[in-house]
Amino acid sequence: MEVDGTPVEYIEVTLTDIETANRLANVVLGQSMDELVKPSRTLLSKIYEMVKEQAEQNNAPIDEIFFTRRMIREYTGWSDWQVRAHIKQLEEMEYIGVRTSSRGKEYSYILTYQGQGEEHQERCYLNLTSVAQIETLINREDEALPRG
């Protein structure tokens, strides 16, 4: 292809190519929920459930919902000690991301895990954009284009 008279090489990728790449990344780079101790896995499932409910209520994607340890305690009924102990492993294994306030003391979290591997305990690589998410983004872009 030429851009402003300069040849530009590129690789065209289809959604099927992305689906294949995601499947391979899960197998080669993925981690298993079996790597989590049982209470941490239980907490992750509860957090996922809580965030999913909030996402549905707010009509927002899961990865745009921020939450605090207090919200986790209120939702799960777990003690502060239990939440602190097990959320640390979820941070280290990158199932959740941490965000601190400008004052440096207040923590909020974002879920990078989106239910992958929960049912079959298969390996999953977090933070991959699924074909369904890409299709949603393409449809949003198409709807935003001016008609004429």
Which key phrases capture this entry?
single chain, 148 residues, three-stranded antiparallel beta sheet, two-stranded antiparallel sheet, 5 helices, 11% strand
Strand order of the largest sheet: 3-5-4
Tally of contiguous helical segments: 5
Order of secondary-structure elements: EEHHEHHEEH
Shape: elongated
Please tell me the CATH architecture by its name: Orthogonal Bundle
Q: Give me the count of strands.
A: 5
Percent of residues in helices: 40-55%
Describe the structure.
The chain has 148 residues and is mostly helical. The chain has one domain (2-139): Arc Repressor Mutant, subunit A (Orthogonal Bundle). The chain is built from 5 helices and 5 strands. The strands form 2 sheets. A 3-stranded antiparallel sheet has the order 3-5-4. Helix 2 (38-58) packs across helix 4. The protein is elongated and about 65 Å long.
